[in-house]
């Protein structure tokens, strides 16, 4: 895994006005907490942070200051409700040799048999994974799976070292042929309309 380094500076101003000023200057406020230490507030470069978390909600990042480095994972992103721009990040301190609880997105690959389609019931799975081996997503292969099949937690192939406490019979993906309601023919539609008009 390539080491992602994000430079930080200590945040000294707080409040909405200060936050807006930080963003105007190309920065983003972040808070770092965990491992029994007091939360710390920093400012990071928005563009650098965005590139690290884009497409990876559980990105592992090394924060670097003038005096030290610390390992963190992303725990929460606050976005502007209108623009969807990331306005703030919550970061969790972690140790390189520990396992952490994270939600990992589900990705379906392959095509079911016949006209069946795959419907994802759980968009992400709660798992525990080694800090340096957190998967970006959990892949579920539906190639050739028949209509009526349910893919459960017991069927999911988790990467090495990744575990879950979700029930084994929890349904993750449903395979089914879409039910299309037959449309009435023109003659039938006209008869129904005439009948309704005469009532």
From TrEMBL:
This is Large ribosomal subunit protein bL25. Pfam families: Ribosomal_L25p, Ribosomal_TL5_C. NCBIfam families: bL25_bact_ctc (TIGR00731), PRK05618.2-1 (NF004131). Belongs to the bacterial ribosomal protein bL25 family. CTC subfamily. InterPro entries: Rbsml_bL25/Gln-tRNA_synth_N, Ribosomal_bL25/Gln-tRNA_synth, Ribosomal_bL25_b-dom, Ribosomal_bL25_C, Ribosomal_bL25_long, Ribosomal_L25_dom, Ribosomal_uL5_bac-type. The gene is rplY. GO terms for biological process: translation. Part of the 50S ribosomal subunit; part of the 5S rRNA/L5/L18/L25 subcomplex. Contacts the 5S rRNA. Binds to the 5S rRNA independently of L5 and L18. One of its GO terms (molecular function) is 5S rRNA binding. One of its GO terms (cellular component) is cytosolic large ribosomal subunit. Keywords: Ribonucleoprotein, Ribosomal protein, RNA-binding, rRNA-binding. It comes from Trueperella pyogenes. This is one of the proteins that binds to the 5S RNA in the ribosome where it forms part of the central protuberance.
């Amino acid at each position: 895994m390539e080491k992602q380094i994000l430079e930080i500076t200590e945040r000294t101003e707080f409040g909405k006005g200060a936050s807006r000023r930080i963003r105007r200057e190309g920065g983003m406020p972040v808070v770092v907490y965990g491992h029994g230490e007091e939360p710390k507030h920093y400012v990071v470069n928005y563009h650098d942070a965005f590139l690290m978390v884009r497409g990876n909600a559980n990105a592992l990042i090394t924060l670097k200051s003038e005096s030290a480095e610390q390992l963190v994972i992303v725990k929460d992103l606050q976005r502007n409700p209108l623009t969807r721009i990331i306005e703030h990040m919550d970061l969790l301190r972690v140790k390189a040799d520990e396992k952490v609880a994270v939600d990992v997105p589900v990705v379906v690959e392959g095509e079911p048999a016949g006209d069946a389609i795959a419907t994802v019931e759980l968009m992400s799975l709660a798992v525990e994974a080694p800090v340096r081996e957190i998967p970006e997503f959990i892949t579920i292969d539906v190639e050739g799976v028949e209509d009526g099949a349910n893919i459960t937690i017991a069927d999911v192939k988790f990467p090495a070292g990744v575990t879950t406490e979700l029930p084994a019979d929890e349904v993750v993906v449903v395979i089914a042929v879409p039910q299309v309601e037959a449309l009435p023919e023109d003659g039938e539609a006209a008869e129904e309309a005439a009948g309704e008009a005469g009532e």
